[in-house]
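Good day; I would like, with your permission, to put a structural problem before you. A protein sequence and the structure tokens that stand for its backbone fold form the material at issue. Thank you for your consideration; the sequence and its tokens are set out here:
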Amino acid sequence: MAGNREEAPDYGRGVVIMDDWPGYDLSLFTYPQHYYGDLEYVLIPHGIIVDRIERLAKDIMKDIGYCNIMVLCVLKGGYKFCADLVEHLKNISRNSDRCVSMKVDFIRLKSYRNDQSMDEMQIIGGDDLSTLAGKNVLIVEDVVGTGRTMKALLSSIEKYKPNKIKVASLLVKRTPRSDGFRPDYAGFEIPNLFVVGYALDYNEYFRDLNHICVINEHGKEKYRV
């Protein structure tokens, strides 16, 4: 029932950015000079990203509870989001009367070539997933697009019988290719745009950009492989 405070909150949509959102003019912000001419506009400024992550940390701690957490960071795009999220989770733990133990492990997935999502996910590196057995696992991802990549990862992890699995994604794209997967916690829901910055890359470029921006055609052509 709408307005029922007893219902479990829906964290999976996040801040919704509509398709007709024009973004912010690049001239209003500072960004690396070597990317001049490569971007269309700023979609989400850095300060808004940081504030949203702080709120996500509070939601996660409230939902999961004060229990030990194994954070599984999806590299490379998720490293900045993960670092900021974990720092906020630690701050909440420090200021409470119960200590939460957090360990961070890393896995790398490859699902994009240039600006296109590939049909198959490649898992690169990562420790033995059997160590996740019986753990409370929080997967931290940069972007959920079609959802196939995350579903494949969840399928791999579930074989080892963790106690609990939750997914936090900084961004969720509205795409017609989506299979309907939604993360448990989302920072922002965005249009079906190829975005860069805040550790999100285009062929390893733009990771040093603090804001989340939309790349233009010139930028795609310049850094295409």
Remarks:
- Residues 1-8 have pLDDT under 50 and may be disordered.
- Helices lie at 46-64, 79-94, 148-158, 217-222.
- The radius of gyration is 18 Å.
- Residues 14 and 186 are 5 Å apart (CA to CA).
